[in-house]
Specification:
The structure holds 2 protein chains of 2 kinds.
Chain A (H helix, E strand, L loop, with lengths): L11 E5 L3 H11 L4 E5 L2 H11 L3 E5 L7 H10 L8 E5 L4 H9 L4 E4 L4 H61 L5 H32 L8 E4 H18 L3 E6 L3 E2 L1 E4 L1 H17 L5 E10 L2 E8 L6 H5 L10 H7 L5 H11 L3 E7 L3 E9 L8 E2 L2 H11 L13 E5 L3 H13 L3 E5 L2 H10 L4 E5 L7 H10 L6 E5 L4 H10 L3 E4 L4 H13 L10 H27 L3 H14 L6 H15 L3 H23 L1
Parallel strand pairs in A: 1-2, 1-3, 3-4, 4-5, 7-10, 15-16, 15-17, 17-18, 18-19
Antiparallel strand pairs in A: 6-9, 8-14, 10-11, 11-13, 12-13
Chain B lengths: L2 H5 L2 H5 L1 H13 L6 H7 L4 H14 L3 H10 L3 H18 L2 H15 L5 H21 L14 H16 L5 H11 L6 H12 L3 H16 L1
Helix pairs in contact in B: 5-7, 5-9, 6-9, 7-8, 8-9, 10-11, 10-13, 11-12, 12-13
Classes of the chains: A alpha/beta, B mainly alpha.
Chain lengths: ~625, ~220
């Protein structure tokens, strides 16, 4: 089998001459620098070219049978061999013959008897050209591959963006045109939100990639609660896995630190990407996230699935930008092909890496290793019980409470829908809102009225947010001015604060962050959470488990008598309280049952009631062990 | 370095370099051979030069008769190719006048001018020089192995041959006769003869494959 150029350590030169003496001399001269192949006639030369794919051919002209001219003619006529340079070594002294050889495509001529230095120099020159040509070819191949990958990426992007937009526009038009009955409008809005969220993820991935390419990806190392990050991931992903019939497990391998120094947003981003992929590519079985301290200064997260798995070639291009293992994957499963590339870059930024082990049809295991730094404030968790107590301590009820505030807010935002959305939210807080569409109108309003808080979009027509803020603050009004912007780069935020903005909030806004921020300017700090010590939490947890016996009996009765109203109320109570004591799964099932009862989904009520009973029975069995 | 200078140094006298130097001097004494100029053309690679001279004296024996026969047969094409070959070979060994005569003969033959006088001169000169060179080399005895055949010895010999074959190294031609002799009258004689045949045809890749297969067979 012919070796490709890249497989060889040294260039390979084919020597062709019917005189063995010439072969011996040339071989002896060149063997220290190059590998040699030999042929003593034209036919043998053509066979050897096919066999060894030489980088250069040194060939006699006058040979019995097929002469050098005929051989070069055949080589140049074959696309597979036409690029191989040929130097003629000849005893002929005819200018006409030399011209013929060069016309046929020979690179050079060396006359016999030759000088060893001349031979070495000319061979070296040709090999240098060959090397440069190979490098150019590789570069060209890489560029073509990159260009094709970007084209595929754009096609994917178009699909990825258009798909959620179709749902958003379609459902929004459906609502405005009255296509949906009132009881289905809420779920239609839910679909719009879900697709909007997906679209935001796509945009974020593209932004992350551009930051990685510009080497501007930012990492914020802070003290973070490892357990709460994992709990949050569990609550986000478990339902998604269960909806596909998959088991989702977070396997904590103790001891683990409760707090670490890292970037919680990025760790979450990496793990969500890996878990999403695991769920996406697994049709049955399980997805397991295993977390452990793998070395004194290393924390490892391993995401294992029982999905379709990957072949060796697929694994080799897994982490490249814009790449999915093949186009059929993009068609079947969607996705930008950027997630893993971004995740790997993020892992590098966090002082680690991502490795993959996989086998087709048997599943994959992605292991993320990050640098582990433990702050003084950490508590080492050695068992599941302590973990549950900690989770119960940290978990807050999911239901969002909107505070009732009193005051006047000025909002300048040029985007009509966003202006309406922010106004609505502020009004729900009880605030008196004046909304305008550019900076100039904001300045005018601020002169006519006193406001307690001003929100200014940065990019607006007529007058931008920075200019408006400067004019407003120049009037010496002591009012906090918050920058509202879609630009989330740290350097930009620092710039806004340096210009004089009191604070900043990124669009799209996180509802909770927005409420907290507004509350801060009207109330001061958000109300601190009540802190209970671990013993108190443990006692409350035991009390909760103790009460499950009664609840279990009630649920069975309610189901048997089709008392849906009481069943729904019972589920609602469990939904709110179970997560606080670390029973997240129980809370999820109860929530699903409550929702099913609300919409009278009798197809699922029975199944969800059984799931709730099973979950309660498991907890009671665990408590009795 | 002169003969005198060399003989003043007893250590140098025993070295291979001394014998090479002596051989170069003896070659230079042959009328029509400039061994030092030829060596200079070969960038002073004495060992290679002397190896070529030896090959020349062996390969060109009887060449004068061959040239005369080709002329008699009026096989101008083959004659021209042989003369062309002699032109290069004689230049490498330092027989520059003979190389020049060969060039002139080649040019005439290419113009269908079949000058018998020049050919006879060429053949005579070639015979004289080949005979003179051959006289400098003692007649080599056929390789007779005193080593008794064993599988282990064959394996060791083949393992030594393999890298030479893989690198298309002509020194395999020096090492092969001993292996042929070792395997004489054994079941491996035919296989080794095939390897030698491939080496003669410069089919080193094929030879390497044969040796590898044989080694695998011996190991099993």
């Amino acid at each position: 089998m012919a070796l490709s150029d890249s497989d060889r350590n040294r260039p390979l030169v084919l020597l062709v001459d019917d005189e063995k003496v010439s072969l011996k001399i040339l071989s002896d001269l060149l063997k220290d620098e190059v590998d040699i192949a030999l042929a003593k006639n034209g036919l043998q030369a053509l066979e050897k070219v096919e066999q060894v794919n030489p980088d250069l051919i040194l060939m006699d002209v006058l040979m019995p049978g097929m002469d050098g001219f005929e051989v070069i003619g055949k080589l140049k006529a074959n696309p597979a061999t036409e690029a191989i340079p040929v130097i003629f070594i000849t005893g002929l002294n005819s200018a006409g013959e030399e011209e013929r050889g060069l016309t046929l495509g020979a690179q050079d001529y060396i006359h016999k008897p030759f000088s060893p230095e001349v031979v070495k120099a000319r061979v070296a020159t040709q090999l240098k050209i060959v090397h440069q040509r190979q490098q150019l070819q590789r570069l060209s191949d890489e560029l073509i591959e990159a260009s094709e990958a970007k084209s595929r990426f754009l096609a994917n992007m178009s699909h990825e963006i258009r798909t959620p937009l179709t749902s958003i526009i379609g459902y929004a038009e459906g609502i405005t045109q009255g296509d949906f009955a009132p009881e289905f409008q809420s779920s239609a809005v839910g679909i719009i939100t879900q697709n909007g969220q997906h679209l935001l993820n796509v945009v974020n991935e593209i932004l992350d990639l551009s930051k990685i390419e510009a080497n501007k990806l930012e990492i914020e190392i802070i003290e973070m609660d490892l357990i709460m990050v994992l709990t949050s991931i569990e609550s986000l992903q478990k339902q998604q896995a269960q909806a596909k019939g998959l088991t989702f497990i977070i396997d904590y391998q103790f001891p683990l630190p409760s707090m670490i120094k890292s970037d919680p947003t990025r760790i979450k981003q990496i793990l969500l990407n890996l878990i999403n992929n695991a769920i996406k590519f697994t049709e049955q079985g399980s997805v397991t996230v295993r977390v452990k301290q793998s070395a004194p200064d290393q924390l490892s997260f391993s995401v294992e699935d029982t999905g379709i798995g990957l072949s060796e070639p697929q694994m080799n291009k897994l982490f490249a930008d814009f790449t999915q293992v093949d186009s059929s994957v993009a068609r079947k499963y969607g996705g930008t092909g950027l997630g893993l590339s971004i995740a790997k870059s993020l892992a590098h930024k966090l002082g680690g890496d991502i490795a993959v082990q996989s086998e087709p049809k048997k599943g994959s295991q992605f292991t993320v290793v990050t640098h582990l730094e433990v702050p003084d404030s950490t508590v080492w968790i050695h068992d599941r019980e302590t973990l549950e107590v900690k989770r119960a301590r940290e978990l807050t009820p999911h239901k969002e409470e909107i505070p009732t505030l009193c005051g006047k807010v000025l909002l300048a935002e040029d985007h009509n829908d966003n202006r309406a959305l922010f106004s609505q939210l502020l009004k729900r807080m009880g605030l008196d809102v004046t909304a305008v569409e550019n900076g100039e109108l904001a300045v005018q309003q601020s002169m006519m009225e006193d406001f307690d808080l001003i929100f200014l979009d940065i990019q607006m027509p007529v007058m931008d947010g920075i200019t408006a803020m400067k004019m407003i603050t120049a009037t010496a009004m002591d009012v906090p001015v918050v920058a509202l912007t879609a630009n989330a780069m740290t350097t930009e935020i620092e710039k806004y604060l340096a210009e004089g903005f009191t604070s900043h909030i990124s669009k799209p806004i996180d509802r909770r962050v927005f409420i907290n921020l507004v509350q801060h300017y009207f109330d001061g700090e958000p109300a601190p959470q009540i802190d209970l010590d671990e013993d108190e939490i443990l006692a409350l947890r035991q009390q909760f488990v103790g009460g499950l016996n009664k609840g279990l009996s009630d649920i069975k009765d309610q189901a048997a008598t089709s008392n849906w109203l009481n069943l729904g109320m019972q589920a609602h109570a469990i939904r709110g309280s179970a997560p606080m004591y670390g029973f997240v799964e129980l809370g999820d099932v109860a929530g699903q049952l409550e929702d099913a009862v609300k919409i009278e989904d009798h197809n699922n009520i029975g199944q969800l009631t059984q799931a709730l009973i099973q979950s309660m029975t498991d907890i009671l069995a665990g408590a009795n062990e | 370095m002169s003969e005198r200078a060399m003989s003043d140094n007893s250590t140098a006298i025993e070295s291979p370099a001394f014998f090479d130097e002596q051989l170069l001097i003896q070659l230079a004494r042959i009328d029509g051979i400039d061994s030092f100029k030829a060596l200079k053309c070969m960038s002073g690679q004495t060992a290679l030069y002397l190896k070529l001279v030896k090959s020349f004296s062996v390969e060109q024996q009887g060449c004068d008769q061959e040239l005369r026969q080709l002329y008699f047969d009026k096989d101008w094409q083959t004659l021209c190719r042989r003369v062309h070959s002699i032109k290069s070979y004689t230049a490498y060994v330092g027989a520059f006048e003979l190389s020049q005569s060969s060039g002139e003969m080649e040019a005439l033959l290419n113009k269908d001018n079949h000058d018998e006088t020049l050919l006879k001169h060429l053949a005579t000169e070639l015979e004289r020089i080949v005979t003179a060179i051959a006289a400098l080399y003692p007649e080599e005895q056929a390789v007779v192995s005193t080593i008794k055949f064993s599988i282990e010895k064959l394996k060791t010999s083949l393992e030594a041959l393999l890298p030479l074959l893989e690198h298309s190294d002509f020194s395999v031609e020096d090492a092969l006769p001993a292996v042929v002799q070792l395997c004489k009258n054994t079941e491996y004689a035919q296989a080794i003869a095939l390897v030698a045949e491939c080496v003669d045809d410069v089919e080193y890749e094929k030879s390497a494959e044969l040796v590898t297969n044989l080694l695998t067979k011996l190991t099993c």
